[in-house]
Design a protein that fits this description.
Residues 59-227 form the FAD-binding PCMH-type domain. The chain is built from 14 helices and 17 strands. The protein has helices spanning 26-35, 48-52, 72-84, 133-141, 157-162, 170-173, 201-207, 242-252, 296-307, 326-329, 350-360, 412-423, 443-447, 452-465; strands at residues 40-42, 65-68, 88-92, 105-109, 116-119, 124-128, 180-186, 192-196, 216-223, 229-238, 260-268, 283-291, 312-315, 318-321, 338-345, 370-375, 397-404. A hairpin with a 5-residue loop joins β7 (180-186) and β8. The longest helix has 14 residues, at 452-465.
Length: 477
């Protein structure tokens, strides 16, 4: 039994048994090579495996063709060739998301597309599809600005943003998609379009929140925010105080102003040499805290109730630069195999906490590294001035479970996750965050993340711009 049973999907850790890759005439592949600046690899050729490798090592791509795009024109040529040869199209920048591309596909890798340009007066950044948040944050910091990155700066800006994008600045500034002002996208007809509120507004609405459904985004423009310093970081509490700490968090978090974003995770810390002795091999509670207001002393005052909630093993909250936001969640930096799944909660009550402790508390032996509750609300609950398709705005909290993606745990990890997420079903919200869906069974599971009116609108647009369903991998309708 696995979490996949909740949606009738195949086991999320099982490598898909694709048919043999279609064969193409050498002349056809040579034609593709002559039309793009980057490398092209066909199935079976040396170099393909290195081209398509993902940061998440549990994701195994087996495309018929891989194209290493260097610019928007490369992407347009690749999509046109794929459409002419009956291939579906997938795209990857860093490969943090578990979205495998199968043998009937072309995988376009965008990591060579590294352009970043900032207009400091307008506070607008233009970012190409291969740029990571680390690159954007470092460049923006030169002007006293920051972007709405997630928990890890190693993630690509574009893919994260198209799925909504929720990070430490979210409650004050909204989803990353809310700050997008223009998108450059190659649609199924091979056209490279620049869309914004005044140009193709329906496509602009949809692509901000529809992730991979409508085309390959080659660049986007987004607003930056005037943030240089934060009062932020994490506190590790003893697992023995899991009950008091989680109940304190439940009462405290909803009282916070929008300048505060926070989450708390039950984290099972490995017994490894690089882990501090105080934490090694323990199950602890990790409070993640960000105050993005201007009065840093107020940020310290606001977190004080949690500092009194339980035994503190390590307190790492303090003044940090915007370029140091990785220190808040302390996500892994090096590639590894992971499996994840999330849902949204309408409320977290005393009963919710007790159910969570019973399913995932320190006394339970679980193969899950992280079980996280993240506060929603604030600007995340509001549509931006130019509305978009991002779902989940009505939720009170987001929940995410992460486990190792090793093949030998292919049944164990999903089964454990099912137990934890199943315990939260009484409080489950009707929508979901696309970036927290993990490996999905297909378009029906993706559609369930949105309200019905949004799904109908997205499907109508997809039928118009992608009638053959070229873009149908991963989190696509």
């Amino acid at each position: 039994m696995s979490l996949s049973d909740l949606a009738g999907e195949p086991d999320p850790l099982t490598v898909v048994d694709d048919a043999l890759a279609p064969a193409f005439a050498t002349a056809d592949v040579d034609e593709l090579r002559s039309s793009v600046h980057g490398p092209v690899y066909a199935a079976g050729e040396d170099g393909l495996a290195g081209e398509v490798v993902s940061w998440n090592l549990a994701t195994q791509h087996t495309p018929a063709i891989a194209v290493g795009a260097t610019c928007g024109a490369d992407v347009a040529a690749a999509v046109s060739w794929a459409a002419a040869h009956g291939l579906r199209v997938a795209v990857q920048a860093t490969g943090h998301g578990p979205v495998p591309a199968g043998a009937d596909s072309m995988l376009i890798t965008t990591r060579r597309m590294q352009g970043v340009r900032i207009d400091p007066e307008r506070r607008i950044a233009r970012v190409e599809a291969g740029v990571t948040w680390k690159q954007l944050l470092q460049t923006a910091a030169e002007f006293g600005l920051a972007g709405p990155s997630g928990s890890s700066s190693g993630v690509g800006v574009v893919g994260y943003t198209l799925g909504g994008g929720l990070g430490p600045l979210g409650r004050q500034h909204g989803f990353a998609a809310d700050l997008v002002t223009a998108v450059e996208i190659v649609t199924a007809d091979g056209r490279l379009r620049r869309v914004c509120a005044g140009s193709e507004p329906e496509l602009f609405w949809a692509v901000r929140g529809a992730k991979s459904s409508l085309g390959v985004v080659t660049a986007l423009e987004m607003e930056l925010v005037p943030v240089a310093d934060l009062y932020a970081g994490g506190i590790f509490f003893s697992g023995a105080d899991a009950g008091p700490v989680l109940h304190a968090f439940r009462s405290w978090a909803p009282t916070l102003p929008e300048e505060v974003s926070t989450s708390i995770a039950i984290i099972r810390i490995p017994d490894l040499e690089f882990v501090p002795d105080l934490l090694r091999g323990q199950t602890a509670l990790h409070l993640r805290y960000t105050y993005s207001g201007t009065d840093l002393a107020e940020g310290e005052r606001l977190v004080a109730p949690m500092r009194a909630a339980g035994e503190i093993l390590l307190d790492l909250i303090g003044r940090i630069r915007s370029t140091d936001m990785d220190s808040i969640h302390m996500d892994p930096v090096d590639p590894l195999a992971t499996w994840e799944k999330g849902l949204l909660l309408s409320d977290v009550t005393e009963e919710t906490v007790e159910a969570l402790l019973a399913a995932a508390g320190p006394q339970v032996h679980l193969p899950l590294v992280i079980v996280e509750l993240r506060l929603m609300g604030g600007q995340l609950a509001r549509q931006p001035e130019v509305p978009n398709a991002v779902p989940g705005r009505g939720a009170a909290f987001a929940m995410l479970v992460i486990g190792p993606g090793a093949p030998e745990l292919a049944q164990v990890v999903p089964a454990a996750a099912k137990g934890v997420l199943g315990a939260m079903q009484p409080w489950k919200a009707p929508e979901a965050l696309l970036n927290f869906l993990g490996r999905v069974s297909g378009p029906q599971e993706v559609a369930a993340a949105y309200p019905l009116s949004t799904v109908e609108r997205l499907r109508a647009l997809k039928a118009a711009v992608d009638p053959a369903g070229i873009f149908s991998f991963g989190h696509a309708l």
